[in-house]
Design goal:
439 residues; alpha/beta; FAD/NAD(P)-binding domain; Polyamine Oxidase, Chain A, domain 2; 3 domains; 7-stranded mixed β-sheet; 15 helices; binds flavin-adenine dinucleotide
Amino acid sequence: MSGQRIVIIGAGIAGLVAARRLGQAGHDVRVLEAGNIPGGRVGDRQVRGIQFNAGARLLYAFSRPFNRLLDEIGLTPALIPVRRLSAECVGGDGRWPVELMPGIRSLLTPGLSLTERMRFLTFGLHALAARAHTDPDDAASALAQDNVTLAAYIRQALGPAVLARMIEPVFRGTRSWNTEDVSAAFFASVTPHMVGRDTVHVLAGGMGKLPAALAAGLTVDCNTRVVTIETPDMGPCRIHAEQQGEPVLHEADLVVCATEGSLAAALFPDLGNEDRRFLAGVRYNALGIVHYQLGCQVAPAMNFFTRDASGPLATWQQVPGNDATGQAPQLYAQLSPEAVEDALRRDMTDRLDELVKERVLALYPTLERDCVDIHNQWIARKLPVFYPGYASNVARFRDRQSAVRRRVYFCGDYLAQSLVTGAAASGARAAADIGRHWS
Ligand SMILES: Cc1cc2nc3c(=O)[nH]c(=O)nc-3n(C[C@H](O)[C@H](O)[C@H](O)COP(=O)(O)OP(=O)(O)OC[C@H]3O[C@@H](n4cnc5c(N)ncnc54)[C@H](O)[C@@H]3O)c2cc1C
């Protein structure tokens, strides 16, 4: 294949995987990234010694292509398995364990009716059978569940108590989604690959190891924000960017746009109507997290709250200090979707700690004495929201992108699955489209 000059906008996991695959195919690839390091929503951050994640904290083991990628970049030995990851769910009427990977122990959740327990068992068997025809890297592999909300789907398939006591707290606590706002496509494509598997992974040395390994050997220009991209009928694409306040211009035969989907359309004044319409429908939820550094050791704890017991928090974590890793003891207070709305409405995204203070003091009464520092983390675009009907739009958009040769390709988790593995699959898919179209 004759090497094309390809510029990739965005060094998140999707952009880095696309860049890697295109470089391997012999193209001349350059990645432009607005942030100061590659990784986007994956990476380690530190503010005044407070350590936290840019986004993802867990890697799911169910994606075979992603596992092969980890092998290829030498990260498999760095995977630390976390078995039976569970949290204590706190509801208005008690506390119970809730598992992130659903399994037989989930049947012990208190408050479920006998019918619901029976349905849960049958559902598990059906889920196992659905493994063959669903892809955990692709919500559009479960289009039959795309037009129903997750809340309605669970209520109907499993029962109201399963929704309130298991599904809702986990989705609010991990994804920051309310089950009435998303379709069942994410759940229906991922759950078959979770049932009966009890292991997720973290990375030794932190999640930043993943983008660092993917970026090794690639040309990645950080601190380079792309402003606009011209795609004239004749001649190269012209990519206008700003690098530390200075304008820079790159030319390329092809462009891969790997930014968050809601930012993509603004970069292309010449974008066709169909693409523009699709991109206008890409939505993200936001998230706020308050990190508290403590001056004394703390016992481990991890709680999700049911809606009636949540107040401004969906997740609460006490993270003990660890001398070996240099991790200081910390508290982690993740806002509920309602508190996120409240923070936006009241323009308090940089004062989240004020919003949650009363609740945190109830959970940790000696906060004023023990806390040595606070960091408010605001993530304006946490996850693409796969609302009802969205996965079908994704499938149509991808089919158009795969059908004919074009100058501009798009990738990102919003075109596959709102997980690291989905972002990687989308980057690989864009590279494969280019391989087919331009060979
Ligand atoms: C808080 C949180 C928790 C999560 N937890 C998990 C988890 O436990 N497990 C899991 O699998 N997934 C998790 N995810 C999801 C996962 O992190 C994402 O699905 C994935 O990282 C998205 O990758 P991406 O490449 O599609 O997008 P991004 O990582 O958003 O990459 C887009 C890149 O484009 C850059 N960019 C944007 N505009 C421009 C521009 N104009 N010029 C140049 N560069 C630009 C951005 O700076 C960014 O680096 C979580 C996400 C968040 C935020």
